[in-house]
């Protein structure tokens, strides 16, 4: 039995949930053939390396902005 309702085409396919109970909270529109909106695409395609770099760079960026 599947309670999963797939998002419509043209809708972001960002899924949340666990244990097979997924839902699609994002109602952002996407262009046909694209799975995720910009926001979620950034989350999906971010590599662990990139994530680590962003985390270590973030405080510095804030400081630089505050100083400027
Ligand atoms: Zn989205």
Automatic annotation (TrEMBL):
Superkingdom as given in the UniProt entry: Bacteria
Protein name: GcrA cell cycle regulator
